[in-house]
Structure formats: C-alpha cells, structure tokens
UniProtKB/TrEMBL annotation:
Membrane-crossing segments per the record: 66-91, 103-120, 140-164
Keywords tagged on the record: Aspartyl protease, Cell membrane, Hydrolase, Membrane, Protease, Transmembrane, Transmembrane helix
Membrane topology: Multi-pass membrane protein
Protein name: Lipoprotein signal peptidase
PANTHER family: LIPOPROTEIN SIGNAL PEPTIDASE (PTHR33695:SF1)
Lineage, opening ranks: Bacteria, Pseudomonadati, Pseudomonadota, Gammaproteobacteria, Salinisphaerales
C-alpha cells in the first residue's frame, strides 16, 4: 500500500491528479462568468442600470483596461497574453504544489478561472463586461464581474494561507 507522500513522488513528473480536480472549480467559474455576462449584455444597454438594493446596481460597462480600468486603451491582446502567461504559471504551480494543501489549490483554481473568464471577453469582444456596481452615498466602487470576484477571493485566500497556513516543508 502506498502512502500519500509516495503518491506525490509518483506523480511529481506529471500533473498531480490530486490538484487536477480543482480545475473543475475553474471551469465552473468560467461558465458562470460567461453566462452572467451574456445575460447582462442581452438585457441591458451600455450604462443602463437595474437597481437591486439601495447600494447595488446591475450596470453594463465595457472595461478596456485591467483591474479598476487601469491601462484602459491598451491593446486587448496584451491582456490576453498576460492572462495566458498567468494561467500557465498557475498550472505549473498547481502541478508542483503538494496535493494536501487544499486552500492553495482552491485559491489557484479561483484565480485561474477568473483570469480565463476575462481573457475570453478580451479575445472575443476586445473588452471585459463588468456589471456589478456597489455604491454608497454617491461613491461607486469600480464595476466588476464574477471573474473579478474569483480573482480577488483567490488572492485573499492565498494571503490567508501565507499568513496562517502551515509551514511544513514540501514532501519530496
């Protein structure tokens, strides 16, 4: 009978099956992101608003930049290339990361799904569809979408793991 540490060694050269199942989370996020964006595009004109709560609107916006519209006006293919590079880096990280650290694997899957969800928009539309508009007393948080939420949540969870996760050396 083999232990989990022996399994990690066995699969060290190939993609670890224990982390590959987290790619389903990425796939579900991509599908949810694209469906919600298409629903908004089908039902709202650019800048139209549907109030949901006093502090939340659904508002169709086109983001030609990166997070919070920084670098707006840069070629969309720059962002697509960056998303692909980040995605490859995440896949390599997932492959090399110990399979027992679920928080890191889930975090990476969230970031991967978000990066690819927004990359699909950039490649097919030339911009990202944003539609969630939080606002308080005239101040509006930059509009975002499901993919952006996944990226932020994944980054926060990675930070939590770095601060509070176990510091055991990886199994070799």
């Amino acid at each position: 009978m083999t232990s989990s540490s022996e399994k990690a060694v066995t699969h060290e050269r190939g993609f670890q099956l224990q982390n590959a199942h987290w790619l389903w989370l990425s796939a579900v996020l991509i599908v949810a992101d694209q469906i919600t964006k298409q629903l908004v595009v089908n039902n709202l004109a650019l800048f139209d608003r549907i109030p949901v709560f006093d502090w939340l609107n659904l508002t169709l916006m086109h983001n030609t930049g990166a997070a919070f519209s920084i670098f707006a006006g840069a070629t969309p293919w720059l962002f697509v290339a960056l998303s692909v590079l980040v995605s490859v880096g995440i896949l390599i990280w997932m492959r090399r990361h110990p399979h027992g650290e679920r928080l890191v694997a889930a975090s990476l899957a969230l970031i991967l799904g978000g990066a690819l969800g927004n990359a699909i928009d950039r490649a097919t539309r030339g911009y990202v569809i944003d539609f969630v508009d939080f606002h308080i007393q005239g101040w509006h948080y930059p509009a975002f979408n499901v993919a952006d939420s996944a990226i932020v949540l994944g980054a926060i969870l990675l930070g939590v793991d770095m601060l509070f996760g176990r510091n055991d050396p990886p199994v070799r």
